Amino acid sequence: MSELLFDDAQLLAQLKGKVVVVTGGNSGIGRACVEYYASGGAKVVWGDLKNSFGDEGSDITFSRCDITNWAEQVRLFKTTIEKYGRVDSVVACAGIGEPYDIFTDEFDESGELREPKSAVIDIDLTGTIKTLKLALHYFKTQSPQGGDISMIGSLASYRGTPGLYTYCGSVSAIGDHACESLQSR
What pLDDT is stored for residue 178 in this prediction? Predict the structure, then answer.
């Protein structure tokens, strides 16, 4: 089996004093990102629908954020700017899996076909695009300009998976196409 090794000390040293925004920081990979960046001395402002971790210290700040809501995302970034004066890195990690089969017919009480649910697209694609828009805006309005964006994806962006119709499409759009398009910005 292959092994990939990182020099954590060197990576962590590069994080000291950096200001990082993380979406989806309450669980999973997003939570691991919050903890990893903070362990390297970064100042982390993270958003999610809830905070299961309470007060985390002076260099970790929670800001409630539904990434489908533009005003809440703006607040997440403004909280970061007000507290630290800049944004050095953004980790777009908020997302959900496919909790339902979009092609299963559902009917309302009068027997009419219901509109398909779009939560996966709203969160995984549209919400992430909003995060990227805000990151690029703040990167170009600060001095010095610039910053880093990390978009957490899925192997499902490269390989279709039965039953994950909107999930595969959403993560594919972000993983393949948004990354390539953003390189010219």
Answer: 59
pLDDT of residue 171: 77
**Rounded CA separation 86/84 (Å):** 6
Which candidate, 69, 86, 72, places its Cα nearest to that of 21?
86
**Mind giving me the DSSP string for 38-82?**
HHTT-EEEEEES--SS----TTEEEEE--TT-HHHHHHHHHHHHH
Q: How far apart are CA 25 and CA 37, in angstroms?
A: 11
Q: Which amino acid is at 96?
A: I
Distance CA 139, CA 137 (A): 6
Residue 147: inside a domain: yes
Q: What are the tokens at 72?
A: 């809440």
Structure tokens of 3? 């092994």
For residues 49 and 66, is the Cβ–Cβ distance under 8 A? yes
CATH code at position 43: 3.40.50.720
Q: What tokens appear for 144 in the block?
A: 């010095």
pTM of the model: 0.87
